[in-house]
Amino acid sequence: MTNDEGMTKSEVRNARSDDSFWDDGAGVVREEAETRLVYDLEERTAPFGEAIIDFAKTIPQKPVTNRIITQLVGAGTSVGANYVEADDAVSKKDFLKSIGTCRKEARETKHFLRMVVRALPELKPQARTLWLEARNCI
Q1: pTM of the model
Q2: Which of 10, 71, 100, 118 has the fewest Cβ atoms within 10 angstroms?
Q3: How far apart are the first and last CA of the chain?
Q4: Rounded to an integer, what distance in angstroms lies between the CA atom of residue 60 and that of residue 13?
Q5: DSSP tag of 45
Q6: Residue 52: inside a domain, yes or no?
Q7: Span 75-101, pLDDT tens digits
């Protein structure tokens, strides 16, 4: 059974738990877009990957964070790479496979952003911005 947005019950539950992690208890905060959203996903995912790289450079190298940094950069930059691959697909099956991988990488990016915040709570504001963009890519 799915809801109105086409999400399964487990996806809805996961979305709620993801959102609750970022809630600081201040209630709902509406964030206004600073600029118009770009709907060309290739032009949107490339700067996202670049922003992930820039963010990863700000994370101190420690035994706990080294693996998280590697995973975050890998997943965050793969979103755009898999979208480009999907855009060049030669069949519907190939397209769906690549887009599916793109979604998985975006979800994985969200996960590792959450792990960064757990390791370094002071990076939460920057991680939240990237987390919201990763969520929009899904």
Answers
A1: 0.72
A2: 10
A3: 20
A4: 33
A5: H
A6: yes
A7: 999 999 999 999 899 999 999 999 999
